[in-house]
Every structure is written in structure tokens, then in C-alpha cells.
Amino acid sequence: MKADMTVFDELESEVRSYCRGWPVVFDTAKGARLTDVDGRRYLDFFAGAGALNYGHNPDALKRPLLDYLARDGVTHGLDTFTVAKAEFLETFRDLVLRPRGLNYKVQFPGPTGANTVESALKLARKITGREAVINFTNAFHGMTLGALSVTGNSMKRGGAGIPLVHATPMPYDNYFDGSVPDFLWFEKALDDSGSSLNQPAAVIVETVQGEGGINPARAEWLRGLADLCRGHGILLIVDDVQMGVGRTGPFFSFEIAGIEPDIVCLSKSISGYGLPMALTLMKPEYDQWAPASTTARSAGTTRRSSRRRRRCARTGRTTGWSRRRSRRASAWRPGSPAWPRRPGASSCGRRVAGWPAGSRSRSRSWPRRRARRRSSADCSWRRPARPTRS
Ligand SMILES: Cc1ncc(COP(=O)(O)O)c(C=O)c1O
Q1: Which residue, by CA, sits nearest to atom 3 of ligand 1?
Q2: Domain extents for the chain?
């Protein structure tokens, strides 16, 4: 086959990017080599921007993948329990976490790096009840709105089309070529009530900035940052999407600095094969998610009766449950007239989980069922306590 690029010009969006720098059509790939349709071979230094740490189509991973497909292993399962998920979690615990003395819960946030960054930011805000996040100059954390808000590049930020808020940039290591003591402005702003810096929920950092120009932070700078966060009750998020999974040597890039982030974002090479996959790791005490509060909407549908779902698929209508729910959504805000005030409800009208047995709601049954289902620990509308740190 000869290279024909007309279909890309004709159909692929102008947003395409890397292919503009490499106007060839690649066909096969193995290890560190790519081959184009004319048989020319290329040494791949790009390696999927960190998604191919094990190379293209590594045999050790291809065989089990093919076996799994051949036996019709589940390839899409929302967040249901599967053998593949159990085996992955056990292996991750036994080979990655335990040997390093790390204790993290694992969230599967969605397939991309931006998904794990979004979930990390949401979780930090939920845990602390604060909005502000500290990011660093030249950082890159992804192209979704939350991830862009903590990204430095003005061209990429401009793509958002709306103001990107609740993030405050601080100088990354060596931003002033060593002429300014580390964290001079950050520490001063935190300690000075006149600085206008809102108390941050979290700091998000790459140990080595990839998209920002391969800027490695010194180990002592990372340790200083971890100390600063601990001292001020700020959660430390390490975005290891690009630098994790062995890219810098050890499995986690932060191991070199000897720090233990509160939340870790992993993606890219975590699937081992360049397939889309991401994880958010969090210290167990910070696993404060309510069920389904940040999974894909469709994940929540597994609880509906399959008969009802089949009927909806046939008729193209939403279920009565979701229609009733969307109709009420606007009324269901704390303080609105429809918001049920029960014994135990706080003065601001927020619901408190665990209404007394036998109490009757002004609404129909689902809010009561939902309220009962939630324990006070996962009550997502309650302002959470500040994290206690050891
Ligand atoms: C450090 C970092 N975080 C997040 C992302 C976003 O990952 P994705 O492009 O899969 O959304 C990237 C992508 O390059 C990245 O380098």
C-alpha cells in the first residue's frame, strides 16, 4: 500500500497535531520501531508520550491479551466485578504497592490521564471542603476543564472558551534559575492573611514536567513541597500520568524523593500495552467518595431492572426513574421549598443522612430511599471535616 493521506485531510478535524510533524502513514510497530506503509523504519523516541514504556506490542503482554480475547473475557463491564479487575488489583497490590510499603486505595476513574486528574481534584475538594488548588508554572495536566485550570500553557488554556478558575500558579523548581529560595512566595502567601491566597485544598505537581519541556524537579524541592503541604494541611497530588510506570526508573517517579503523596494520578503506560486506562490512588483515609459520585453516568444504570432497561432500549424512552429524577432536579436543592426539612436537617436546609425511621418525606419515595442508602460517612452534601494529618 502506498501512503495516501487524502482521507485525513478530508475527514480528520483540524485539531490533529502530532501527525502534522510526521506526515507519513504508520502501519506496524514493534518495540522501539515503527514502520510506515512504504516499509521505511523509524526509531520511536516519542513512545506515545509515555504510554508505551514497554514498547510497541511487547510479546510478554500480547500473548495474555490475545488469550483473554480468545476466551471472550469481559472487555466492557462498567465498574462491575470481573476476573480481570480482581487479578489486576491483586497484582498491583502484590507487585507494586506492598514491596514499596505503600497503602493506597485504587479508583478506576475513566480511561484517560485527564480523567484521573479530574477525579483527584474533585476528591481533594471533597475531602477538604475547599476550592483552591495550587499548580505550577509550565505544568500540563490534560485538556478537560479542571485539568486545564491547573495547566500552564496559555494556548491550551485558551481552548477552554470559559474562565479557568480556582487554581493559583506557583513557580516550579528552578523557575528563577536558582536565584530565589524555594517556596519563598508560596510560604509567604500561605502565612500572610493579607496575601489573598485562599487556603488550598491541594497542590498538584509533576515530578518531571513532560509537556512543559522536560523540567525535572530536584528531590529536595519535592521533599520541601511535601513538608509544606503537610505543615499547612494541604493535600499533595502527584500527577504521575506521564512520568510514572517506570519512566524515570522506579515504578513511581516520586520514589526517588522519598515522598508519599496523598493522591497519585496514573495513566498512559499503566495498561502496559498503550490501551486507554487510568488509576487514581488515594490514601485509605481519603477514600471519601460516595458510590457512583464520579463514575460515568451509565455506570449507575446497572442497578435498574434489566426488564425496564430493555423496554427503554426498545422504545428509546428514558426510564420513569430518570424522568422523575430530572424533573425534580431543579427543585432538589438545599433550601428550596421542595427540599424536605426533617428532624435532623441542619439549619441551612442541607439534608443529613439517616432520617429517623418512620419519618415521612414531602417528596415521593426515591429521595427517602437514597437518603437511607447513604451512610453518614459518604454523605456528599455535607461539608467534610478538614483532613487530620499525622
Ligand atoms: C502529566 C500529565 N497529566 C495528564 C495528562 C493528560 O493525559 P490524557 O492526554 O490521557 O488525558 C498528560 C498527557 O500528556 C500528562 O502528561
Answers
A1: 141
A2: 6-66, 83-286
